[in-house]
Specification:
The structure holds two protein chains of two kinds.
Chain A (H helix, E strand, L loop, with lengths): L1 H16 L3 H17 L4 H11 L2 H12 L4 H12 L1 H13 L4 H9 L3 H13 L4 H30 L11 H10 L6 H16 L7 H24 L1
Chain B lengths: L7 H23 L6 H7 L2 H15 L10 H17 L2 H19 L1
Helix pairs in contact in B: 4-5
Classes of the chains: A mainly alpha, B mainly alpha.
Chain lengths: 234, 109
């Protein structure tokens, strides 16, 4: 009885993850193309998508390496992009924290934006056991994560054949703007984004591409601070 | 192009391990504990604090035009932002931005 329900919950996860194919697929493809155009070979490009498995941070790292930023700055800035995942980790722990260590490690590896958002939203609605919650999580990642690898590979293979006239230099800006725009949902988010832009432009001349990191840290603090101030006034 | 001297595998591995540790932080290491409110408040703004700053110079001074301001790329950026904001649909925003870029490049060359 429990076995069949767990199995059906797994397949429910697969179905709920499927729509994200439309988002993750093109990103993977784009990363493959961009990384190849930037001069990475096939194994390096795949290394990024398999070992890091975090699109925005991968694009950030590639862009900063193209800009010839020092390695420390490349790493610090790209990891900063991924800091939001600490929040995911914290908020999924009440649900999956009792699982065996190797399963928690596996969940952590696959804890991407989509699997986190879909799973936690579901956990809060259903009264599931740990086994059922795990089954659902692994169901959700089935359409998402393998597709990320496969389409990165496809992108890397077609990347070199794409001519300059396609203006792919602008794929990263468009992708990032598309990611950020829906996140501008409150005034503090808008303020943080604005501070980030202004400071990044003003500090663009700083050595070692350190301007972006400074801009990001200040923008984060101002975002948090303005949330406090706006909250207090209400 | 990424210079040959760039330690690409070092970046991949450290970024991979670091990203895993961020994801594993609470689930594997800290356990079920409430994050302090001030920390949560900062984490909420990481994406909007990093990505716009990364994009801004690429929009204003695109490498493809040798750092000259380019109306096609500016328009594409603006359309992407507006469509993404209004529809909250990432894919729709990318498509709208791409179409704008190509249309402008075609029209003004």
């Amino acid at each position: 009885m429990t076995a069949t329900t767990t199995k059906s919950i797994f397949w429910k996860g697969v179905r709920d993850g499927a729509p994200f194919l439309l988002v993750v697929g093109p990103f993977g493809l784009l990363f493959g193309v961009i990384a190849t155009e930037a001069g990475l070979n096939l194994s390096e490009t795949m290394g990024f998508s398999v070992l890091v498995i975090a699109g925005a941070a991968q694009f950030t790292a590639v862009q900063l390496m193209v800009d010839e930023a020092p390695t420390l700055i490349v790493l610090a800035t790209s990891l900063a992009v991924n800091l939001r995942m600490a929040m995911y980790s914290a908020s999924i722990t009440p649900h999956l924290g009792a699982a065996p260590l190797w399963k928690r490690a596996l969940v952590s590896y696959f804890l991407v934006d989509q699997s986190y958002a879909v799973s936690v939203a579901k956990y809060e609605k259903e009264n599931w056991s740990l086994q059922q919650k795990l089954a659902y999580f692994f169901g959700v990642i089935i359409p998402i994560c393998p597709m990320w690898y496969v389409l990165t590979l496809v992108g890397a293979m077609v990347g070199e054949t794409i001519p300059d006239t396609w203006a792919l230099d602008f794929a990263i800006p468009i992708t990032f703007l598309a990611l950020v725009a829906p996140a501008l949902r409150t005034l503090p988010h808008v303020i943080a984004a604005f501070v980030s832009i202004v400071l990044a432009l003003l500090l663009a001349g700083l050595p070692y591409n350190s301007g972006l990191l400074i801009a990001a840290v200040v923008a984060m603090m101002i975002g948090a601070q303005s949330e406090l101030m706006i909250g207090r006034r209400k | 192009m990424i210079p040959d001297s760039a330690p690409i595998w070092l970046v991949i591995i450290v970024l991979g391990v670091g990203t895993f540790l961020i994801r594993f932080s609470f689930l594997g290491l800290v356990g079920d504990r409430q994050l302090p409110e001030w920390l949560l408040r900062h984490l909420r703004y990481t994406s909007v604090a990093v990505l716009p700053g990364l994009v801004a110079p690429l929009v204003i001074w695109p490498q493809a035009t040798g750092g000259q301001i380019d109306p096609a790329r500016m328009a594409a950026a603006a359309v992407t932002l507006v469509v993404g904001y209004l529809t909250k649909n990432v894919l729709a925003a990318i498509v709208a931005g791409g179409v704008t870029l190509y249309a402008m490049l075609f029209l003004i060359g």
